[in-house]
Design brief:
The structure is a homodimer. Chain A is globular and about 80 Å long. In chain A, strand 10 and strand 11 form a beta hairpin. In chain A, strands 2-1-3-8-7-6 form a six-stranded mixed β-sheet, sandwiched between helices. Chain A has a five-stranded mixed β-sheet with strand order 14-13-15-16-17. In chain A, strands 10-11-9-12 form a four-stranded antiparallel β-sheet, covered by helices on one side. Chain A is 41% helix and 24% strand. By secondary structure, chain A is an alpha/beta fold. The interface between A and B is large, with 90 and 91 residues.
């Protein structure tokens, strides 16, 4: 089964927005053995939309669009495609009703804005794709030859929900015969460079990948190892991927922290839960990022107590009990200060584990001895403190992201005895 | 001048790679007044490449491709497009020579791999676009009607270098007459829905957009208003954009917090600096996100002291001085608790401003009275406290992002007297 994607919006042609919707849809469809034959991005104009969709319909007869469904006047997807199908627009009473429901559920009073009600204008004979994450309904339009266009909103959260809940079941129901299956399995590593990881894997004598493709995907979180299988039955692919992943994982050793899209923060929370310990954070240059990473995981409240954002040195002293002499002798960015911060967070919040970050995120503040990117990290588990100093690469944001990731990695390794 | 982009690679259709090349090229070309009429992504097959490029050539006669120029056998861009132009492939002695040079300059010995030399195969009559950042040369192919295709590599670093150094000068040299200049200006708003904002703007009697396009771009930060000018001289565009933006801004009122890519956190830091006040944060459900937003801005240390991540209620009491009776009577997610948290952060850190967030980020923890997304936010400026309760839409991450943004917005509005 082949589908074409048409993503709509002037901002895509001007380069203001990077089209993540297209990549997400492509991955989701590929997992169900559905091939994207082509992706096209066109502007907001009715003519451009109609031209782009017409060509895609002629080639594959199956088209998904994203964008141009909102309440403002630059959203022309529905009328442009309705005209292509020779359909008039009419107000759908069910959509009007659900717009009113949503308006009330958000606690809003007074009349719904007229522009909002415009979203109830639907092409004749169209099916509605329910939007449980926003107001603009999606549209399914099909002609008498079975050629169809599904119109999704451009807001990623709404698009993803609508695709999964309303569109994908409809597409799968139409599929006939055996699909080509693309499946992948990811092993996540952190704290090891891509080249060092590839050397370790190459050194495993007789490592059999069973025809699976292996890709190294580096990023600030670490290096992901992605195994991909294509073309065989789903069941066979899943077994082979699991088997080869089991062979690959030992080569990555303690650097591997999880599979799939496991977040290192979730792995750390699970380790804390397993050890029956609660954690408190102390953050200087990351300013709350580490706490935000941990609290991003639902259910983190059983092991995360909270923390202190000690951006100013006075706060390091007053709230964390860092000694002024330590700051004077070693500076705010030092392993000594990091160790006292970790211990201070643990004590101040009554936790078993304290973890701290202090560093120079840049762009200013570097010195020859402590260049931008210098970060000191410490973890205190029941009074035993481990720490290290490192230089993180990247801009301010990336230095901070890598610092939070390294702090999580240190806690994980202290807890599992590999630090 | 209109150009179409064709990005080539199976990985784009499988969604493994997000097409950042297309967005980058679009931005660069727009700056020179060149409009991207359409972007297409096709797979690695010779037929797909030829089909995609043929359509683009017929529509605009000016096409840039990226990808499929490397030494591996799945790189079919050159032969596929050569065939489209009715040209044979031949080995280019200059390219052979430069491949040898590069081989030696990298300190490699022995024969160049044959796969590497294949990169010297060039369509007859083609121009070479020098690659100073890799081995694959770019190709310029033009027919007798002046229609052209420029083929760039897919590796972003090589593509960017080649575009800037070799392709852009060639394109600008072809341009005849006055270029169409595309310029835009963005006004950022927060705290108002897209539909309400559009109603306010529509209600401005006699609002003259002077032919500029106005787009509403909603996201969790708020709604951006983007004005775009096309077709006149650069100077005129800049003046017109500024003039229309000045007319539009009052319609957005206190919801408008900045222009261009201003971060609300930066606007808040500037307002604090202007008022000579320092700030401390108190975060529950956002767990450090608000602190991370503020510390993301370089130079924030002069007005941001730090904060308390009070995820557990014990921390709210012990570190922020929230009264247990308040928690018992109103719950952790209440304006009353938020107000005591803000006041507590201000006092605990010795700041003039305290800001707090407490809420139910989900997916669990909601009740009929306080559904998931319920968030209470307070700001204490010199002992005067303002607070509100709202329901944030979206998943856990988005509820948290919107909460941090709303807290920044409250601080800004308290400081400028519009809260």
């Amino acid at each position: 089964m082949h589908i074409e994607l048409v993503t709509i919006g002037d901002e895509l042609l001007l380069g203001f927005t990077i089209d993540t919707n297209g990549a997400w849809l492509a991955r989701e469809l590929a997992q169900h053995g559905i091939t994207i034959a082509r992706r096209t991005s066109v502007g907001d104009g009715a003519g451009e939309i109609a031209d782009g969709v017409r060509g895609a319909l002629e080639r594959t007869g199956a088209v998904i669009t994203t964008g141009g469904l909102g309440p403002t006047s630059d959203d022309l997807t529905k009328p442009a495609i309705a005209q292509l199908f020779g359909r008039a627009m009419r107000e759908d009473p069910d959509v009007v009703e659900s717009l009113h429901q949503r308006w009330k559920s958000l606690g809003r009073t007074g009349e719904i804005p007229r522009s909002n009600l415009q979203q109830a204008q639907i092409p004749e004979g169209a099916g509605i794709l329910a939007n449980n994450h926003g107001t603009a309904p999606g549209i399914w339009l099909e002609d008498d030859r079975g050629r169809w266009v599904a119109m999704l909103p451009g807001v990623p959260r709404e698009m993803r929900g609508m695709f999964t809940e309303a569109l994908l079941p409809r597409i799968l129901a139409r599929r006939v015969g055996e699909p080509t299956v693309v499946r992948s399995h990811t092993i996540r590593t952190t704290g090891i460079a891509e080249s060092a990881l590839s050397d370790r894997i190459r050194n495993v004598a007789g490592l059999d990948l069973e025809g699976l493709a292996l890709a190294y995907l580096p990023g600030w979180e670490g290096v992901d190892l992605r195994l991909t299988s294509r073309g065989t039955s789903d069941e066979d692919a899943v077994t082979r991927l699991a088997r080869v992943a089991d062979r690959l994982r030992p080569a990555a050793g303690a650097y591997a922290y999880g599979d799939g899209n496991t977040d290192l923060a979730a792995a750390v929370l699970a380790a804390l839960r397993g050890a029956g310990k609660r954690i408190a954070v102390a953050e200087s240059c990351t300013g709350g990022m580490l706490g935000a990473r941990l609290t991003a995981i639902p259910g983190s409240s059983d092991v995360l107590l909270g923390g202190i954002i000690a951006y100013h040195n006075d706060v390091k002293v007053a709230a964390l009990g860092v000694r002024p002499e330590t700051l004077a002798a070693h500076g705010a960015v030092s392993e000594e200060t990091a160790r006292e911060m970790a211990a201070g967070a643990r004590r101040a919040l009554g936790a078993e584990v304290g973890v701290s970050i202090t560093g120079i995120a840049g762009p200013d503040g570097g010195t020859p001895e402590k260049p931008v990117g210098t970060v000191c990290i410490a973890a205190d588990v029941d009074g035993v403190v481990k720490s290290f100093r490192a230089i993180m690469i990247g801009d301010r944001q990336e230095v901070r992201q890598r610092s939070a990731q390294s702090a999580l990695s240190l806690v994980r390794r202290v807890l599992n005895g590999t630090a």
